[in-house]
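FYI - complex with pyridoxal-5'-phosphate, inputs then prediction.
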Amino acid sequence: MSDRPAVLELFPDGTRLADDGGLVVGGCRLTDVAGEFGTPTFCVDEAALRRQARRFADGLESRRPGSHVAFASKSFPCTAVYRLMAEEGLAIDVAGAGELVMALAAGVDPATIVLHGNAKTDDELRRAVVAGVGTIVVDGFDDIRRLDAMLTRRQNVLLRVIPGVDARTQAAISTGHLGSKFGLSLADAGAAVERLRATEHLNLLGLHLHVGSQILQTGPFTEAIEAVAGLGTFAVYDVGGGLGVRYTYDEHPPTVEEYLDALTDAARSHLPDDAQLWIEPGRSLVAQSTVTLYRVVTVKAGTPVFVAVDGGIADNFEASTYMGQRFEATLVERVGGGSPVELVGRQCESGDLFASDVPLRDARPGDLLAVPMTGAYSHTLANNYNGALRPPVVFCSEGTARAVVRRDTYDDLLARDL
Ligand SMILES: Cc1ncc(COP(=O)(O)O)c(C=O)c1O
């Protein structure tokens, strides 16, 4: 049996312990990264991120040639990540003008961009048209009317539909159930398809759906494919993202390969043979690439023992009790083992909690702490709660660490005041 600490299973693959027991990610000692960039810091194993992108792209291509993978950029929106995904051959999914601006700034080919959103403004639609965005997902009749009216050329579109399946995940991140605010019900979809086909400028490629996020079984995905199959024959079926990841030891999501097998089997059973299958992974593409580094600020002995770090809700909103996602953690220089503590942040809420009963080995003020599986939605949801300075994003690759996003400064906190 291996004596490798179990927590390392949640770190980017390739993470190792140095001879003195310290954690090494992307070939960089995390103590050195913290020394150079401070804490909190989002530390990305660049090679692991690239491998995961290729795993999705090659995995889908080998199972259903001609299909494609789009990076759901809401999960980690910074230009370095957009660029990396484009370099690995992925299309890019943007929700709104802000993500579009970042994708274009990263040099992404607009033809590979898919724009969606349930409340796209005229300005956003116009920006997408002017930029030459390849595919726009229409969310309802209003989008059809407004988009057709502003176009002077043909525009490829998908129609977002609600498959009416239970994603078996948290309510806040379920989107494919009846009554969802995203897309049109199956009952309304037929009329929308007719309307689209009657427009002057909209070229309907096919259907789009997304059932939810952090989904830990394949059933909801395959049920969704089956549910929309009856709507007619289309060239493209974009089934969104949603594959879950292993934040904690007792979560066992399908592997990327199991997920792709399930999707492509369902497509073979229910969709036209020559239809393209598009997917939009976010969380499962980026979560495991990243470790957030914190400094332990204070330890309060008692029952329970509170270990408080120099971050919290401001840099990991999903861990807060609002979202309720548990995260595991370890000290960087004493990895694994130890006795359970209440691992908390420094923002002014009791809900500012990474997790209860996190085993840490004799945590002391000044220790460095690493929280794995923080690549998805952490940078996205980072905020200035209590005047927190949002962390930098640091790419670690072959022993070299480079910041691709800098830390906020106190001047940044004042920069928008008039
Ligand atoms: C339309 C759409 N596609 C893809 C995603 C990415 O989902 P995930 O990060 O769970 O893979 C989302 C997430 O909300 C979404 O709304």
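The chain has two domains: 6-46+287-414, 47-285. The radius of gyration is 22 Å.
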